Amino acid sequence: MRKELSHTRAHTLDLPKEPEQLSEVSRETSRALQKQSKAVDAARKILELTGEDLGREGLKDTPQRFAKAYQSLLGGYSLTPAEAVGKGVFASEGNGLVSVEDVEFYSMCEHHLLPFWGKATVAYFPDKKILGLSKIPRIVDIYARRVQVQERITQQVMEAVRDLIAPRAILVRIEAQHLCMMMRGVEKQQSQTMTQAVHGFENLADFERQQLIRLMK
Ligand SMILES: [Zn+2]
Fold it and tell me: How remote is the CA of residue 4 from the centroid of ligand 1, in Å?
């Protein structure tokens, strides 16, 4: 008994001291690995249902590739807009229109888990702050890389920019094509879906409003 106790104590002493942060990181790693192995299982099940031979060469690593691809396609959950923007908020030196147009994005429709993709335009009239230009595509990606509907991404991007820099007015416009409409259902190949979210229009002078209206198309 005593021998065992001293053995345990010696063993404990031999362990390297782990800072709490490190163990938090390893907990996160193990959660991520668990998630990944569940995704691999799920992909295998979907493939099995097709009647395919999962042992054949081309499919051997497909479940793993699927899990990895989806991890990146749906990677938008891990960041908040404030984290993505970091120190990219600056004092405004003017109050004229700032517009970042045709930001490409890829997303996943929440009804069919099929991709939709397109371009986002974000335009705002600053008050006291502006955003680093590269931050706008990052904000779009945070929301696009989730299971989504186009209307919600549009609204969320508008709200994120509004909350980060409180501009006098903002317009977000998204144009996209949906694979679930192209490949199944109505099978419309050329149709574009357009969504817009506007905030603070009433704060603008007439000539400024005209500038935003021109971007709405
Ligand atoms: Zn859909």
Answer: 62
CA of 141 to the centre of ligand 1 (A): 19
**Distance in Å, CA 151 to ligand 1 centroid:** 12
Compute, in angstroms, the gap from residue 76 CA to the centroid of ligand 1.
19
pLDDT tens by residue, the chain, 217 residues: 444 444 444 444 455 555 666 688 888 888 888 988 999 999 999 999 999 999 999 999 999 999 999 988 999 999 999 999 999 999 999 999 999 999 999 999 999 999 999 999 999 999 999 999 999 999 999 999 999 999 999 999 999 999 999 999 999 999 999 999 888 877 777 789 999 999 999 999 999 999 999 998 7
Question: How many whole angstroms from its chain centre is CA 21?
Answer: 26
Q: How far is the CA of 181 from the centre of ligand 1 (A)?
A: 7
pTM of the model as a whole: 0.84
Q: Give 150: exposed, middle or buried? Use CB within 10 Å, 0-12, 13-18, 19+.
A: buried
Cα of 106 from ligand 1 centre, angstroms:
13
Domains and CATH numbers, the chain: 16-73 (1.10.286), 81-216 (3.30.1130.10)
Residue spans of beta strands (DSSP E) within the chain = 89-91, 98-109, 115-125, 129-131, 147-148, 169-178, 193-199
DSSP state for residue 19 in the 8-state scheme: P
